[in-house]
Specification:
423 residues, alpha+beta, two-stranded antiparallel ribbon, 62% helix, rod-shaped
Length: 423
């Protein structure tokens, strides 16, 4: 049972929270063949699909058994009185054909247990009634055996639910009694008990065993799916931890380096520019000393949210590069375009208007930025781009902070930088 994940009454059936409840149901033994409602509804749907699949996959075997049974009866007992067995055999054939045809009609899926039950009742009734027309003891004994085979085949192949089996078996017995009384057919109490009680008790027993086994397998399948769901959730969580900074939710340095290499090779193939921005919050140590580390963490999360808005297009990425350092990746952005981005980022941080009494630049939080742009070539390493951006960040700090500088590199050394200070 795979991919067993659907909703029942807005409840995820493989929710890990249900694991202990399902284990308790499995341990209980469910001898009355009944689950709690949230499981029973889904089991009924699952079991019907399984029964349909089983019926269709066993269609060839059913036909083969039916033909073999006919050959045995009509050849081995060719010279003996068979009474109305021929008609019962024909009715059985039409019944099996009817079930097989209905099983292939999707619109009839919901009625599977109904049409299999009614058809099984008709077949059993026909066989038991035909027994009243046979006087030869040997032929009657053969019909007894055939009746048992038919019961086993019908209930095993169709996977009828146990309580359905009980109902249709008793209805078949009742119909046999009514027909035999109506038409004054020879049917002693002993013969009726032999046919009905013995054969149908076997059928009901088979149905009980099959359904109990399928219910156990159903629960075990759910537990396997829950274990898989828990493993997937754990893997997702571990993957998230390996990629995200726990405080800001931004990409961590490891994941940023992976994406940088990936975008580097893509821009190299497509001959597109690649830009990186490094950002450092000005006088952040003084901010922590003055307002406390909790306020510092809140400041970092505010800035991270602002930066996300500036790296929202596909392939763009913003990450936390260090304590108060952030890094942004911009594929397909050249040196001219990156200037506009630097200005917007600088403005966004100022618009946050986060008080900073310990700053030597302004009384609000500011940042220094450095950017570098390159058209990747094979002779360069992606780290050169980050190193160039870091040099530009250092220049911004040297020139009084709260500013930005950028450069474009063609080989290993940055070209002439442009420096702008915001007053």
């Amino acid at each position: 049972m795979s991919n067993l994940i659907i909703r029942t009454d807005n409840l995820l059936i493989t929710d890990p929270a249900l694991k202990h409840e399902i284990e308790d149901v499995l341990t209980s033994g469910f001898r009355l063949l009944r689950f709690p409602d949230y499981l029973e509804q889904f089991f009924a749907h699952s079991y019907r699909k399984l029964a349909l699949k089983n019926m269709l996959s066993n269609a060839v075997y059913l036909v083969g058994l039916y033909v073999i049974m006919g050959i045995v009866v009509f050849v081995q007992f060719a010279g003996q009185d068979k009474g109305m067995f021929t008609w019962a055999y024909v009715i059985t054939g039409f019944g099996l054909l009817f079930i097989n045809v209905c099983a292939r009609l999707p619109n009839m899926d919901k009625a599977f247990h109904w049409y299999t039950g009614v058809t099984s009742m008709v077949i059993l009734t026909a066989i038991m009634v035909s027994a009243t027309t046979i006087t030869d003891p040997i032929g009657l004994a053969g019909l007894h055996a055939i009746n048992i085979y038919v019961v086993i085949i019908i209930y095993a192949m169709s996977k009828m639910r146990f309580f359905n089996t009980v109902i249709w078996c008793h209805l078949a017995g009742l119909a046999t009694l009514l027909i035999s009384r109506t038409f004054d057919l020879h049917f002693t109490q002993f013969e009726f008990q032999t046919f009905f009680v013995f054969a149908n008790v076997i059928g009901m027993g088979i149905a009980y065993i099959i359904e109990h086994r399928e219910r156990a397998m159903f629960l075990q399948g759910l537990l396997l799916d829950i274990d898989k769901a828990e493993k997937d959730l754990l893997n997702q969580y571990l993957e998230k931890l390996s990629r995200e900074d726990s405080l800001t939710g931004l990409a961590n340095r490891r994941y940023f380096d992976e994406r940088l290499k990936m975008e580097w090779h893509r821009c190299l193939r497509e001959k597109k520019p690649l830009s990186v921005i490094l950002l450092d919050i000005d006088y952040f140590k003084q901010y922590n000393d003055h307002y406390g580390h909790m306020a510092g963490d809140h400041c970092l999360t505010q800035i991270s949210r602002a930066l996300k808005k500036e790296a929202s297009r596909p392939a763009e990425l913003v990450g936390r590069y260090g304590g108060e350092e952030f890094i942004l990746l911009y594929p397909n952005i050249d040196a001219t375009q990156i200037k506009n981005t630097l200005i917007r980022i600088q403005q966004r941080i100022l618009e946050l208007n986060i008080p900073h009494e310990g700053s030597h630049v302004k009384k609000v939080v500011t940042a220094s930025l450095g950017a570098a742009t390159v058209f990747p070539v094979k002779s360069l390493d992606p780290e050169k781009l980050v190193s160039a951006a870091d040099q530009m960040l250092y220049k911004s700090k040297e020139n009084g902070r709260n500013g930005w500088s950028n450069t474009q590199i063609s080989h290993c050394e940055p070209e002439q930088q442009t420096l702008i200070n915001l007053v």
